[in-house]
Asparaginase
Amino acid sequence: MQTQRNRGSTGAAGKPRVAVIGTGGTFAMQARHRFDWIEYGESGVVRSIDALMDEMGGLGNVADAVELVPVPFRALGSTAITPADWLALAKLIRLTAAADTGIAGFVVTHGTATLEETAWCLDLLLDLDVPVVITGAQRPLNTAGSDAPGNLRAALALAQSDAARGEGVLVVMNNQIFAARDVTKAASFELGAFEAPPFGALGRVEASGRVVMRRRRANTALRLPLDLEALDTLPRVDIVLSYAGADAVAIEAFVAAGSRAIVSAGLVPGRPAAAEQAALARAAQRGVVVVQSSRAPRGEVPLQAFLEAAGVLAGGDLAPQKLRIVLMLALSCTTDRLQIQRWIDEA
């Protein structure tokens, strides 16, 4: 289905106005040579979104159809982003939308290592009428075959499209459109590194700039009773990876460090290693919220008798890193485990 662009909010030239927020990452980094596709971060050069857009020059018919509104934020490598940055970014987007009701959509450029986590956290924190689209790059702008201009062009097309409304925060990479809940980075350096197992992409941005949505997001947006403006920090939540021979050391260390919740990224089909099971039960008895998930990319963990007996919640089909974010936000509202389980089921 071809979409119509959102014409409800226009700038002086009668064009939709799209806010562009740069957060750093590969998208903003300057490589040392044309084929510096791996260690480009060693250059130490990270450019602002204004400078990047100037360097890119024209982005064709898609960019010509919108008025770009650069919004300053901090420049970060995505391996350095923290929950405090998520909160600051969500507040900036909400404040910008409230202060400038002419904004038709938002594009956030982001490093790819944690792009899926930032997108999911924003999806849970924001409830806006306008689209929010996250994109990034696998190759810096000044390298051969950089995907930065194409990804920004696709994100601008999506951010001004009516089809993006009501779909929550969206991710667009390599012209594929993904729901924040489902998307994950599945490869280190490939241009098509992002996938959404097992559901797949929602649609794509064609080479012409046309937005095509083939399906809608599977779940309605989870809305937690949060006061975003009052949130300055999020509770500590950790992930424990299961593997053959895993023991209680990591679990006990996280409890000692003050974890409010632990996600067990269990062996497939969602069970901890034998030596971990008792430690997870002990953590639950001490008041730590423990959630069982699976390390499998298409894992699902339903509620089962062995989990209920240990006081452990079931993670469903959410990836461990996505569960962690749900728990951080949920624990900012309540410690009621039944309510937290309901929110996990609804996410």
Notes: Residues 17-213 form a domain with the Rossmann fold fold (CATH 3.40.50.1170). The longest strand covers residues 103-109.
